[in-house]
Amino acid sequence: MEGRVLFSVLIPVLNEQDNILPLLEELYATLRDGPPFEVLVIDDGSDDATVERARSVLAVYPGLRLIRHPARCGKSVALRTGATAATAPWLVTIDGDRQNDPADIPRLLALAQAQPDLAMVAGNRRRRDDTLAKRITSRLGNGIRRAFLRDACPDTACGLKLIRRDLFLDLPIFDSLHRFLPALVQGRGCSYANLPINDRARGAGRSKYTNLGRAAVGLFDLLGVMWLLRRTTVPVKVVEEGRP
User: What gap in Å lies between CA 44 and CA 114, rounded to an integer?
Assistant: First the structure.
């Protein structure tokens, strides 16, 4: 593995001009003494100074790359773009609003190292530092999803996750894919673990989602994922003979 990065940090951003530089500074300060890594900022059509500010530090931070969507495509597509461009076998996804704590990334990696059978580690926010309405909506949505998908994840919308790159790229791409990763990983016959992580208040900018809009889309997507899982068959064992 000498000379290769172990994990790629994917940061999907949309109009996070006041968060991107502090987040990058915090990320590199936290991870610089650990295994080799790269950071991909995937801009999803920002119309503020996010791109200019990220571009201004490309020569400052080693392994930092900026990828742009000319128009907004959504968080899941941005993550797919980043995963396709990444060079490491593991992906770390983290939100660009600084509510996820980079200090939790080494804990995700340590858990995956301690349990080699894991294909993903999902961060679960404890004591969410958010509005009461968002906390109630999130708890209700997570409860409904768990009841139907049986994925045992208390906080699937948390942006901080560690997942194998090959597995992520093998999953079907659709809007809001990132909210159903635990169920889809299990549907592929793979194991994942939940890990309680820190949650922080958004320091700048505005959320890109509304509670009502998220609930309506979430219900539609839930029905689609239920169909997808029911129509997915994974062989228990594959036997191959002869030489390629």
Answer: 35
